[in-house]
Design brief:
Blueprint lengths: L13 E2 L11 E2 L3 H12 L6 E8 L4 E9 L7 H18 L6 E7 L8 H21 L4 E8 L2 E4 L13 E2 L6 H8 L8 H6 L6 H23 L4 H21 L7 H10 L2 H10 L3 H7 L5 H16 L10 H13 L3 H14 L4 H11 L5 H14 L18 H14 L2
Parallel strand pairs: 5-6
Antiparallel strand pairs: 1-2, 3-4, 3-5, 6-7, 7-8
Length: 420
Amino acid sequence: MTNNHESRTPSERPAPSATGAATEPQITLRSPAELADALPYMLGFHPTDSLVMVAVHGEGGRFGGRLRVGIPTAPSEWEDTARQVADCLIRGSERRGGKPDGIVVFLCQEPRGEESGQRVMTRLRPLAQRIRLACGALDVPVLEALCISAGRFWSYVCPDARCCPAEGTTLAAGTSVLAAAATFAGLRVRGSLKEIERRLAPLRGAFAGEMERALDRAAAALVPKILDGATREEVGAETIALAGSLMRRMTLAPPAEGGPRADDWDDALLTHDEAAALILGLQDREIRDVAAEWMEGEEAAPALRLWRALARRCVGAYGEHAAAPLTLAGWVSWSTGDEPTARIALGLALRADAEYRFALLLHHACNEGIDPEGLRQCLREERSRREPRRGRPKAGTRPPGRRDRATTRRESRRTARSDQ
């Protein structure tokens, strides 16, 4: 990109601070390299195989709404995709307060087989062009369009080989001012999109076959319960008691490290039959809503581990059943401040069941930047009504179940201190 262009280019426009508050000091990104490096910090993860669009507002170039979708494999779908994403981002920005003055586009995809990064850039050029045309048709220009592949980036907008050479420019990860500010603020990039999705994806191989048979057994066992007159309350009580027991088990057996090895650890803590019974129980909306109350304090971490483990157990013919644990995983992530993971989990829930209403509502609210505290308060009140003698436990208490005397004494001391 030429740096002596008369009008201000998007690379010279200030991006919002890490908190996104318009009244706080702003960070200015001055080159395509800084735009490319800042992308994972804007999203919270590395967007592999993704088309990302960011709205730009005002003379100062404030970054606004963002949109990420997977890049369609078939080029025949590119034109429709370009129209849809342009309309979605621009119309959405208008509803939230104003039409964008420009769009910044990122196409992120790693090479396939013997393909080079430059070849990826060339192959995706028609998609970039269709996006530029679709945005232009809505009277919003694409100010910059970057392809990021194989550790390099290319500009589809800048014709100057002196700053944007044909072979691309090496991506200096973590060197932009936004990266530095995000690190200082304690924000982090949570791996790549594929890595996050992999932690929620169904298990495979012989393990999956055993799990599917366990789900078959659990489904067959549920029918006689219903025929024998078992009520929703009875099934729900069994499901919640089992979930509480498994959360306590996870609390007492934390993994030694994070990432995939932690998932292997959690998978080993659950038997197939336990996971199957809980997955089927969570298909009931009221039972799922009770489970959603484990969203904060010491309950949140074991709940998230459990919901992730259950999502991985929804294998074979039970893939659609993953919508419930995936939505719960997304809700806990959002409630505890991890919006990037929340969006991914909720998106996967809708991929499992496009009509799953709880996921639809949470996905919309999270994308609109709504504060989750309103929903947290509703769930706290519902829990207090359902458990009048116990009342709503304070954030930081254990999952439901018998507690030892030492735990009770500790909580009493915390309550006494908080009342002083």
